[in-house]
Amino acid sequence: METGKLSPSDLQRIVFPYLGARRPDVLSRAAIGEDSAIIDFGDWVCVLSTDPITGAAHKAGWLAVHVSCNDVAANGAEPVGVLATVLLSEQSEEGELRSLMEDVNQAASELGIEVLGGHTEVTPGLSANIVSCTAVGKAPKRRYVTTSGARPGNALLLTKSVGLEGTAILATDFEDRLRALLGDEMLKRAQGFRAEISVVKDGVAAAELGATAMHDPTEGGVLGAIHEMTTAGGLGVEVWTDGIPIREETRRVCDAFHADPLKLISSGAMLIACPDGGAMVEGLAARGVPATVIGRFTSEGRWLVSGDRRRELELSYRDELWRILETGRGSA
Description:
The structure is a single chain. By secondary structure, the protein is an alpha+beta fold. It has 2 domains: about 10-140, CATH 3.30.1330.10; about 155-325, Phosphoribosyl-aminoimidazole Synthetase, Chain A, domain 2, CATH 3.90.650. The chain has 10 helices and 13 strands. It has helices at about 10-15, 60-75, 95-110, 165-175, 175-190, 200-210, 220-235, 250-255, 275-285, 320-325; strands spanning about 25-30, 35-40, 45-55, 80-90, 115-120, 130-140, 155-160, 215, 235-240, 270-275, 290-300, 300-305, 310. The strands form 2 sheets. A 7-stranded mixed beta sheet has the order 8-10-7-11-9-12-13, sandwiched between helices. It has a 6-stranded mixed beta sheet with strand order 1-2-3-6-4-5, covered by helices on one side. It is globular.
């Protein structure tokens, strides 16, 4: 099997048939595009999501906390805490674990959440350490949203910009290779995109402003996440690619690796569906969250539109980051 997350067909065939007994208090359950479970607790819901960090070595503990909390924020939930599972290779030293936990603590402190528990062990057979966090969040029952909630005619928005996490990872892991191409100042800015990974503010604000659906674009990038939103909701979409915000640092890094920024892991952005795109952009801007209308949902068909050209949004979940890390293909 290829590295990276499983395809929707593999999930449907191998994973989803084995999900135990269905409970009536589970309001949102495992499905394509749904990154969190939502459980009914009366006037409130509990939102849970779990994510490992496997494609980045630098600040993995910090990333694990933020990425898992981003998923619950995509349901409009406020994160409360995380449970951290740390699997250490047999070659690990005490200092590595301490550094990893310091990073977990830093991210949790930034978000104002607690490390609720977890599991830590030295695991035979690992070539590298793995950290995975399960985030626990809460939201008023009347205000949570899902990936599948968009409707035909809804606007599609993106906060911030594409490829922020992927740009930061590549600029850090391939620092020496990229310095000559980008220069010290641009390289430093690209590495600094890591500070923008959290979308908790984006998600909570959008839910309060009337979002009908949200999704956090991680592996597979923005195009993969849009495909998941349409699959979850049984919808079509027009994506106006000319208007998708891509920072110059991301373009330059992707050019160096012959990569498509729209297929690069994009934690730090949030995809939002809503009835009035202009009003959502204004409302988010008033709360310090930049957003751009990049398309609209339709009843059928998935299209990428650039000027007069239309091409089908193809199903592709393999992230550019995995290809680059595996092949080391790089300098232009």
